């Protein structure tokens, strides 16, 4: 690691680092100025107004409106400058740019697991290209951790059951230390690693050299179609069926059966997989079983990245391969089947809906598919 020109300061190795430091020095400067001012004035007054004779009675002090106003207004503007500056920097850091390359991060006692959209996995090591915006989508398998990369001036908690993000654009090749910055148990201090920033061509070589791993999208697709059986209700390619369509879902507004709408983001998709009854899409029955306890955080991220790839307009770019994987086109039989299945069951009585789904099951049987086996019973 390269030493910064100021001792104790980490290297400035991202586009944001200089601006974070500017705010930091401003805060230190203001604090140092007022600390000095207070000590000087206290010392001066202690000498100037010291008791000179044993029985001296001080003159009464009258209030000064002007003085009070001045020392209220000046600190007000100083603190507002910190607030506005800090907030604008904060919002810039929590809103990843649209064209960022995505990396998934899972924290675990006591290691950091990274996965690139092209499939490469790393533990306590992250390789990124220089001059490219990188977005980290992060969660944890157990307790709270916090991914801290001092040289990039980014630090964000990783919270169970949630996705947090942070992003950076590295400006300096080399190795940069990464830490867990939230006490997370016995080996917290060992939960460290390195970010290796490479020239783009070296990075491409590195990716190509580690290419024989399944991408998150492909892994998610496999889980969707086979392991978890999502396809039996949402269609082989997410086109919908007894469950709502997932095509172009991400970022869209979803109408719910209680009349509200929700924006389909990572958190919503995650909730719908783990707690399917929390939000029911308008026109559909609450028949989806929960997948809580049957799916790991990594699989969830893979599933979400597959669902994202079904929304090509909003999907962020991956490092090499397009996010959308080619999928086999459905057979004419299943297409005919789909045209029936696709109708949402709005405005049908429960009995009619049941009768309807009965015919569908027969149809899917006729098409040689396994009928869906929802674990939850329809209400
Ligand atoms: Cu993980 Cu501390």
Would you kindly provide a written description of the structure presented here, covering whatever features stand out?
By secondary structure, the chain is α+β, with helices and mostly antiparallel strands. The strands form 3 sheets. It has a 5-stranded mixed β-sheet with strand order 3-2-1-5-8, covered by helices on one side. A 5-stranded mixed β-sheet has the order 4-10-9-6-7. Strands 11-12 form a two-stranded antiparallel ribbon. The structure holds dinuclear copper ion. The site of dinuclear copper ion has 9 residues, from loops. Dinuclear copper ion binds next to loops.
Topology, element by element:
Blueprint: H1 17-48, H2 65-94, E1 101-108, E2 111-116, E3 121-123, E4 125-129, E5 133-140, E6 145-149, E7 154-158, E8 164-169, E9 174-180, E10 193-198, H3 200-209, H4 216-227, H5 231-234, E11 253-255, E12 261-263, H6 266-274, H7 297-309, H8 332-341, H9 350-366
Parallel strand pairs: 1-5, 4-10
Antiparallel strand pairs: 1-2, 2-3, 5-8, 6-7, 6-9, 9-10, 11-12
The chain binds dinuclear copper ion.
